Amino acid sequence: MVLFNEFSTIPSLLRNVVKTIHKPEETFLIHKKDSDWEEISFGETLEHADAVSAFFLNRGIVKGDRMGLMIENSPEYVYYDQGIQQIGAINVSIYPTLSEHEVEYIINDSGIRAILIGNTFLFKKVLKIAANCRNLQMIIPAFAGYEKVSIPEGLQIDIISFDEILDTKKELTEQRIAEIIRIRESLRPSDTSSLIYTSGTTGTPKGVMLSHSNFVENVKVCLQQIPVIDETETFLSFLPLSHVFERTATYHVCCAQGCKIAYAQSLELLAKNMAEIKPTVMSCVPRLLERIHDKAIKSGTADGGMKAKIFLWALETGQDYRRKKEAGNSPGLLLSVKKALAEKLVFSKIKEKTGGRLKFMISGGAALPKNVGEFFGNLGIKILEGFGLTETSPVMSVTEYHRQVYGTVGRVIPGIEIGIQDIETKEMINIQTHESFDEDFECAEGEIIVRGHCVMQGYFNKPAETAEAIDKDNWFHTGDIGRFYKGNLQITDRLKNMIVNAYGKNVYPTPVENIYLKSLKIESLFLIGDKREYLTAIVIPNRESMQEAFNLPESFFLNPELFISEKEIIDWIGKDIKKYSAELAKFERIKNFKIKRNPFSMEEGEITPTLKAKRKVIERKYAESINEMYMESVEAD
């Protein structure tokens, strides 16, 4: 039997931490139990994992079997994942927000044999479809009170408490432990570790097959690019582990480095949890950073007077200081003194809300508006941006800790190639690697393609779709448009999002939308204009700002009318549309818009679990309202 390097598989990472970095009794996981934060050690985590492994071996689970999880971020996720991975089973994490139809499709497409369930609502959802899931043998509730839920009559599937499974650790024999070790050490880097189903902005979700090597190599090179992460860090985890970004950037990184992971209770309690846990690192999405930015600006300037003047002075001072440092120059004594005063009067108060210990945050999942990144840089909080897809494990590029270029997603990670290919001719514009990095290099934009250790094994049971995504030269076609700017990768937009107006002008929605999102009145914006003479938009207002401005009751948002018709609100938004249009070329400016009363909804199928708008769905659903915007003669500017 050939043994592989202990860094080559997911379960070997955590075992190595206990062997070389931390004692078994040291804290690994932190979660809220009742009203107190409870700490769980590395040793206890591994004991629970062994119990899970032993239970499933007793039930006939073998290497290659697919095992489901539909549960919020929690210690139970880790126990189950580590337990199945070390016996060669494959993790299939399902977004808790998916519909019954989508969950049923994934369970059947992947052939899940057992599924871990996190709460009563999800339990009921799975019970409704369980009889249609041909391979499903076990449903495993990981919450109290599941016995009170009525089970469909005649259901031939075992329902087993996760607590009952964890209790089997008391019965582990030396023989069973030896078997678990044998299987774990026989795992190959090329073995499939996980199936992650794509969000599906178009078409049916596809199961992305990622190997142990995909994940482990991704973690290694990210730690190489961000060498400041060490075993003393505390990560606060709140993005879903069913998404590859949080799985790699938090969970797997912590397994490799021996960092603590604290689990936020919910998005609503995130701010409270940050103050309690005082994390040093967090993975996040741009929308969270935009909200922190908007609230800080609003709080700092709302009262006007001297308070607002001090706030704006502090931001300007922070900007001057940051630019000097980034240019490699000394800030000088006077600027350093001003920066220290700005820190005391303004920045420290904002940082306190994050717990006061943040070294940096990792932003991914979408493009971060340049002005938001610069705002945090002015405060002295580093935001490292990364880029990648589920199909690339996910990271393809990430900001270097010591070299920030706002508006880009960083340097190519070691061991892969990123190419920029002409959209029309398919000619290669440029290929960059980690080693070819030149901080002055720039090139024209095109489709971003990649090959190397980060690229998936393929789509599960979909050879035709795999062949379409990965060409004969092993380049994976991302469908994203971008270029290299100052040596870093810069994302322009999605190829499928590109708008070509009636005059043949190409418009990439994301950078245009980001200009308008500078407005504190706008929560999000959906751009329209393909094959049309000009651009229009569906605007989602910032609810809090709008309520304050017009003293609106909650009943206003329960009105069945989809779009807001009040002229004063339309004019209020229109002022900012006109203001920010000045920063854009004429063909990129919004000429008309409608204000949607409530945000696009996942339940309505308008957005994906990662909050990406489903363009075809939205354009089809609101076709009548969109056509009205082109029939109206009034223009926003």
From TrEMBL:
GO terms for cellular component: membrane. The keyword Lipid metabolism applies. Pfam families: AMP-binding, AMP-binding_C_3. Keywords: Fatty acid metabolism, Ligase, Lipid metabolism. It comes from Pedobacter metabolipauper. This is Long-chain acyl-CoA synthetase. The lineage of its organism: Bacteria, Pseudomonadati, Bacteroidota, Sphingobacteriia, Sphingobacteriales. One of its GO terms (molecular function) is long-chain fatty acid-CoA ligase activity. It comes from the Bacteria.
